[in-house]
Specification:
By secondary structure, the protein is of the alpha+beta class. Helices cover 45% and strands 20% of the residues.
């Protein structure tokens, strides 16, 4: 920046100048730019790691079921005489679970392409029943009993079937695992009802140890399981919120935890006062 000094005739006889050393500022700007590049790279790596863990988690259930049924089929064939009826049933379950794994991959591809959910009207009773039947394919969870408390004449909900089914597989599986090795008699309750807020409320309750932090447990990579990756609840909440719903956790006064899912109902669907309570066979 310069300023001239003129004589009385307006002729410039001298210049005054001010020089500012911007070297320090330029170094700071360069450092900030480098930090932004590094942070962007770290963010991409973290996103990739989270996505990889999510894919592994989503595929783990059907692949473990395929393995269990393949081992069962091998045992039935090795019997004397071979039990072909049970072997055929095991093969059918392998085909079913292989298709389930393929559906998971199809939805992951749709996520990359940012395709919308393929929503359709489904019965929550059927969704829950199928989720438990799927979990009972795991020998470690085969004997888990559930107390069903579902309203009669529940309205249907508009959801992506595979995605919502995965949510309840995660929640019910977590309830079963929360009771493993428990000193108390395991008790799992699944409730479903239509509310006055034009929502479907589905709750999975257990009498385990509860959760220490009812909000942080939904963060990615936060887990209370010894071999868990901590993505199941994070993925489940993302799915529910993508459907316009909510997923939250609460500790029960008598012990254990309740995970609640609220899904919006289509306009015009009303609440039902009648209810069903009992055991549902999902084997």
């Amino acid at each position: 920046m310069g300023e001239p000094l003129r004589d009385r005739h307006g002729k410039i006889i001298q210049w005054y100048g001010l020089a500012t050393d911007i070297d320090e500022r330029k170094r700071a700007e360069d450092h900030l730019r480098d930090m932004r590049i590094k942070l962007t790279s770290a963010s991409r790596i973290a996103t990739l790691a989270e996505l990889s863990a999510s894919i592994a988690h989503e595929l783990n259930q059907p692949l473990m079921s395929v393995l269990a049924n393949a081992q069962a089929g091998k045992r039935w064939l090795a019997a004397n005489p071979p039990n072909l009826l049970e072997t055929n049933a095991s093969i059918e379950r392998i085909i079913r679970d292989a298709r389930a794994a393929d559906e998971v991959m199809q939805h992951i591809r749709a996520l990359f392409k940012q395709e919308p959910f393929e929503k359709k009207q489904v019965s929550i009773r059927d969704v829950l029943s199928e989720a438990v039947r799927f979990l009972h394919g795991d020998p470690r969870k085969h004997d888990a009993s559930i107390d069903w408390q579902l309203d009669d004449n529940l309205p249907t909900v508009s959801v992506d079937l595979t995605q919502i089914q995965q949510v309840f597989i995660n929640l019910i599986s977590n309830a079963m695992e929360a009771l493993e090795g428990s000193q108390v008699s395991p008790h799992i309750i699944v409730r479903a009802s239509a509310t006055d807020q034009n929502q479907m409320l589905i709750q999975v309750m257990d009498n385990g140890t509860g959760v220490a932090d009812q909000e942080r447990i939904f963060d990615a990579f936060v887990t209370t399981k010894k071999n868990g990756m901590g993505v199941g609840l994070a993925v489940s909440r993302s799915i529910v919120e993508a459907h316009g719903g909510r997923l939250w956790a609460e500790n029960n006064p008598s012990g254990g935890a309740t995970f609640s899912v609220a899904l919006p109902l289509s306009s015009g669907q009303s609440n039902s006062n009648s209810s069903y309570s009992g055991q549902m066979d999902s084997n």
